[in-house]
Write a structure and sequence with these properties.
Rv2175c_wHTH, Rv2175c family DNA-binding protein, Rv2175c_C, alpha+beta, three-stranded antiparallel sheet, DNA binding, DNA-binding
Length: 128
């Protein structure tokens, strides 16, 4: 069900994600996992409630951002904060997967735990 893709960036983006997601999902796989039509998944991406980037010529979503048959609860808020701070999708992905010893781990992993408030606080601070 998951499709592993290299963490290399597309030609239009800058440097690759350091650690990166463990697995990638295509949009049809996301749709199946959260039981929505693909056009609704595309709407989630347009609304910045879900993050997708091009890998191997197709939009893909980090598998960790879709858990328990839904998008991680705090992801849309964090994506809004990152975009308000001027981050594009590739930069937001990089930020979510940049190792942070004080969390510990990466912000994307912390979103699914009790540390989501701290991740949102850090994302909000980027705008100042």
């Amino acid at each position: 069900m998951t499709d592993s893709a290299p963490a290399s960036s597309s030609p239009a983006s800058s440097s690759p994600v350091s650690g990166g997601p463990a697995a990638w999902l295509t949009l049809p796989e996301v749709a199946e996992r959260i039981d929505l039509p693909v056009n609704k998944v595309n709407q989630l991406i347009r609304d910045r409630a879900l993050l997708a980037v091009r890998r191997d010529g197709a939009l893909r979503v980090p598998a960790e951002l879709v858990a328990n048959r839904t998008v991680l609860k705090h992801l849309p808020g964090v994506l809004t904060l990152l975009h308000d701070a001027g981050y594009n999708d590739e930069e937001a992905l990089r930020w979510l997967y940049e190792p942070d010893d004080t969390l510990p781990g990466v912000p994307a992993d912390a979103l699914g735990t009790g540390r989501a408030t701290e991740v949102k606080r850090r994302a909000q601070a980027l705008g100042f």
